Amino acid sequence: MSATTIFLGKLLGLYLVAISIGMLANRQRTTATLDEMARSGPWMLFSGMVATTAGLAVVLGHQVWTGGALPVVVTAMGWAALLKGVMLLLVPGERIAAAYKGIGFERFFHAWTIVVLALGRWRLLTGGGFRRGCFDPHVLGVRDRCGCNQRPSSRCRGSNRGLHGDIVGGGRRRANAARPDAKRR
Q1: Whole-angstrom Cα distance, residue 44 to residue 92?
Q2: Alpha-carbon distance 148 to 121, whole Å?
């Protein structure tokens, strides 16, 4: 699984969990706000712009339709966000408000939010969750100062700076050799 898939799985999982918990914590405020937004043309236009941008970011950066459930779900969610954003930009506000009422969000509030919470939790679990080191820059695909994209346990070939067990000063250096309290062999 690519680092991009893991990063997007965590990002979207955290987003879905946070949104669903916030919605469950205050049902009345959530339904009133969403009802008002559905009737507001400027809010729908702004929401369409944000959803289109987020969808395009995922679609352009992650077109993976194989390799397991997580990569496919991440790609599908990107396309869904893009289509939703375009729909919000093109469809008149009255039709959007009618569609919002038609899906029965207020009537099936707990069912909708529990499904979103479950999807977010699944994405966190399959995307790496909060294991030790899950926000390691190498796992997220961020290049470190030596320019490599490898996990810390692998040998870095990007420079001679002593990172990840590189050759330093003519001999191999262990990862913990830089620590003064490390035992030397």
Answers
A1: 9
A2: 31
